Backbone:
């Protein structure tokens, strides 16, 4: 295909230096850029120091189209109904539990916009989890969905106490309770079982014991060997397997148990997940980068497919080592419930924003989790404050939002998912209309020259897409790297990622604004571009006059290829 022309435009020099990120630095305002969302403008304004091929040309059909377009049914319907700019960009994660584990319920969640199904290995049997995984894969294969599977490890239970009752217990102010390390079956009146023998080490009379970040509070009034006698100072609900923390003079009592991040049960669950081909493994209670690296190394020796490892940020220690944990992991989950047990509650909003910012700087997807719509576990509508909380996470450009108990055990899981979807769509639309789409002064990630070139291309492609008002961005990718780099820029246009690697497709389900499609690709990029556009035209998904921006990270074998390491803008004809 003929190229309309070439453009050389200057920008900042490509540098191999990677500056360190200051976690404590102030999050300042960012410049706004204009997203027209309309017809392709004649002025091209971008910032690349390189000769990049910018072909503004008509995409012509080449005859009969062979092959299939691997579009999931939900995204396809959304595109038909709302158009390119109406497509939701924030991804949705649902925790699967007894309330939504039937095939019919899982299908309803998939139709409602669930991108990732999370299985919490703390609950239910391995047989139960296997059944759910196979149901999800059945829906993907037979109904055309694209739902990824995540398992979430239980982690060390040293921070857990249990009263033994099957449901929550009301704790009255002034009542006396014994927290013991002795093991017993069932429940005993006013007695709570601690999982770790060192439960009371370093604890003093007068310390405050807080349950689940404030659901109930106790004062330590006596130490009896390894046990603690406590008096309830704030009444509330005591849930089964509750998290606890100790506070002294308004500060968290820090204790280092020096136990491994992954227990024997966790390793068995991980092997189960590898055998079943899950897409993500979320690690609980990660306190350093070594634990993440060790798990990734282990997976690479055991699995023939790529399984992404997510680190859960839920402790003060993980916050103190945030930079190295983000760098080592494939993404993060902000477990606000558990994190709120270890830091003052008024710090949670700022910490959430900083973690989200760091992840975007380092090009790692981030999930905001815990208590997003907690009231919907019981009630059919959320509080207005909960909707505001969801909208704020979307405004911060978190990659994904997660339902926990709302979907797993709640009576209104479908409605909760619908609230996430509607709130996300509305906030994304408002941000675009108010020209709030922001370009970061990105931390430079690439070390090798090809990586730095790819990074520059994606930064400039996203800026061009916004300035030109193209309808969509098409990226052809083997491992998803350029799709991820484009997503980091949070462009107005949706990113259609064409890949011939199934694990890449499922991993991209967690990336903001990316719609992954499984297609057969060759090393002839011009042929790939023509074929994919023709397939979308045949399905009526693109129309005459639509403008798409095209990039690729698939290395051609033919030296004559002009599509590799280029930016092309094509109008559909």
Residues:
């Amino acid at each position: 295909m003929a190229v309309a022309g070439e453009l050389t435009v200057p920008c900042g020099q490509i540098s191999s230096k990677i500056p360190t990120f200051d976690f404590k630095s102030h999050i300042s305002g960012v410049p706004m850029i204009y997203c027209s969302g309309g017809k392709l403008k004649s002025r091209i304004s971008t910032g690349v120091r390189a000769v990049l091929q910018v072909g503004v040309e008509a995409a012509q059909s080449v005859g009969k189209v062979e092959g299939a377009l691997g579009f999931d049914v939900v995204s396809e319907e959304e595109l038909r109904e709302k158009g390119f700019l109406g497509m939701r960009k924030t991804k949705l994660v649902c925790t699967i539990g007894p309330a939504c584990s039937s095939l019919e319920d899982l299908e309803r969640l998939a139709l409602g916009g669930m991108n990732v199904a999370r299985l919490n290995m703390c609950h239910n049997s391995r047989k139960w989890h296997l059944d759910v995984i196979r149901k999800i894969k059945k829906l993907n294969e037979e109904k055309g969905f694209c739902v990824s599977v995540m398992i979430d490890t239980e982690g060390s239970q040293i921070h857990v106490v249990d009263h033994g009752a099957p449901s929550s217990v009301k704790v009255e102010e002034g009542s006396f309770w014994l927290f013991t390390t002795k093991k017993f079956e069932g429940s005993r009146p006013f007695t709570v079982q601690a999982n770790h023998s060192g439960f009371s080490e370093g604890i003093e009379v007068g310390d405050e014991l807080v349950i689940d970040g404030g659901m109930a509070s106790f004062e330590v009034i006596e130490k009896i060997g390894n046990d603690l006698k406590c008096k309830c100072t704030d009444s509330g609900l005591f849930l089964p397997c509750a998290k606890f923390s100790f506070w002294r003079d308004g500060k968290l009592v820090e204790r280092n148990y020096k136990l491994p991040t992954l227990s024997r049960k966790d390793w068995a669950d991980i092997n189960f997940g590898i055998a079943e081909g899950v897409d993500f493994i979320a690690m609980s209670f990660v306190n350093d980068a070594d634990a993440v690296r060790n798990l990734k190394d282990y997976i690479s020796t055991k699995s023939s497919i790529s399984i992404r490892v997510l680190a859960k940020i839920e402790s003060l220690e993980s916050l103190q080592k945030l930079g190295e944990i983000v760098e080592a992991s494939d993404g993060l989950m902000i477990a606000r419930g558990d994190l709120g047990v270890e830091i003052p509650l008024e710090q949670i909003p700022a910490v959430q924003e900083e973690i989200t910012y760091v992840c975007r700087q380092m090009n790692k997807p981030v999930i905001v989790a815990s208590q997003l719509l907690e009231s919907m576990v019981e009630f059919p509508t959320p509080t207005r404050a909960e909707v505001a909380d969801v909208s704020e996470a979307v405004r911060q450009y978190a990659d994904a939002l997660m339902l926990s108990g709302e979907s797993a055990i709640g009576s209104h899981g479908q409605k909760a998912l619908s609230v996430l979807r509607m709130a996300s769509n509305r906030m994304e639309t408002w941000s675009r209309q108010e020209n709030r789409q922001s370009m970061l002064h990105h931390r430079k990630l690439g070390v090798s020259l090809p990586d730095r070139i790819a990074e520059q291309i994606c930064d400039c492609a996203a800026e061009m897409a916004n300035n030109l008002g193209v309808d969509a961005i098409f990226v052809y990718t083997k491992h998803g790297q350029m799709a991820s780099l484009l997503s980091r820029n949070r462009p107005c246009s949706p990113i259609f990622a064409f890949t011939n690697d199934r694990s890449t497709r499922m991993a991209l389900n967690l990336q903001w604004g990316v719609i992954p499609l499984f297609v057969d690709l060759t090393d002839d990029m011009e042929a790939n571009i023509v074929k994919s556009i023709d397939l979308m035209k045949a399905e009526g998904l693109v129309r005459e006059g639509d403008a798409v921006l095209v990039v690729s990270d698939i290395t051609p074998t033919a030296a004559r290829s002009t599509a590799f390491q280029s930016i092309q803008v094509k109008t559909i004809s």
